[in-house]
Predict the structure.
Amino acid sequence: MSTIQQLVGRWRLVESKGFEEYMKELGVGMALRKMGAMAKPDCVITSDGKSLTVKTESTLKMTQFSCNLGEKFEETTANGRKTQTVCNFVNGVLVQHQEWDGKESTITRRLEGGKLVVECVMNNVNCTRIYEKVE
């Protein structure tokens, strides 16, 4: 089973399935969906054992959030949504749960075969993004 420290590092997107559909379900406009679908971001995860920071960097935009596991915080997403978010590390999986305007989405991050597998779910729409470690 993975530890949170095994998720730490810089990860580069190498494969993405269903991301545009997921963004549409979130309510992201068409122009931003098209740009987001073309972006190949890096995901940088750091942790000091108590707090966690997840930064997403691309040529389009940089977003990041920091939190203490198990504590709710306000997150501003890449498309400007303000969410009440909580992150937990359960059975080797980092689970990020967002709630806003009566809606919710869950993003999970886990190691699989040395790669970071990110799954995004809202309603019945699923997206899988796979990252390889670069440092």
